[in-house]
Amino acid sequence: MNPLGPQAKELEAMAARAAKLTAEEVAVLRDTSKSLWLCDESGFGHAMESVGNALAVKSCQGIREAVLALLAEANQSALWATIEPAKALAARHRIGKQFTTEHYRLLTHPWRALVGPLHPADAVVSGLASAPTWSTSTPKS
How many C-beta atoms lie closer than 10 Å to residue 70's C-beta? Predict the structure, then answer.
């Protein structure tokens, strides 16, 4: 099995695009992710925790590290700006009870709004201003 897991092809395509990100694109991705993270109501921090837990299971052992290495090799200066959408993409096959579609959409939103879909099944996003927020009906446990 590929160390990047089931989404290896999509992660490799993301890394290839990350290698071509301009300084302006990196800044927009970084600043948008940071804004979402700082806004408690967005649920970004909880989504980050959920994706970490999804990749911590034995069947995903090593995927997080392989993703980090792939992105660092592609564009070291864009690592912080690309890591959360990349981890969400890597854990896409684990969407279920703990790591939800809502988490995936929130973590990948900055990339999808600026660059485009990460996965063939991803919805097209109309812009950075349309970032999803945490649903009050979703339990935070």
Answer: 21
- Please name the residue ranges forming H helices in the chain: 8-18, 23-38, 44-55, 63-74, 79-90, 101-114
Helix (H, G, I), strand (E, B) or coil at 48: helix
d(CA 46, CA 53): 11
Going from N- to C-terminal start, the domains of the chain cover 8-130
Instruction: Please enumerate in sequence order all residues whose Cβ is within 8 A of that of 90, keeping only pairs 6 or more positions apart, or say none.
Output: 4, 5, 7, 11, 55, 60, 63, 64, 67
* Residue 62, Ramachandran bin (φ over 0: left; ψ between -120 and 50: alpha; else beta): left
Kindly report the pTM of this predicted structure: 0.86
Residue 113 has phi, psi (to 5 degrees) of -75, -35
Q: Which pLDDT tens digit goes with each residue over 16-45?
A: 999 999 999 999 999 888 888 887 677 888
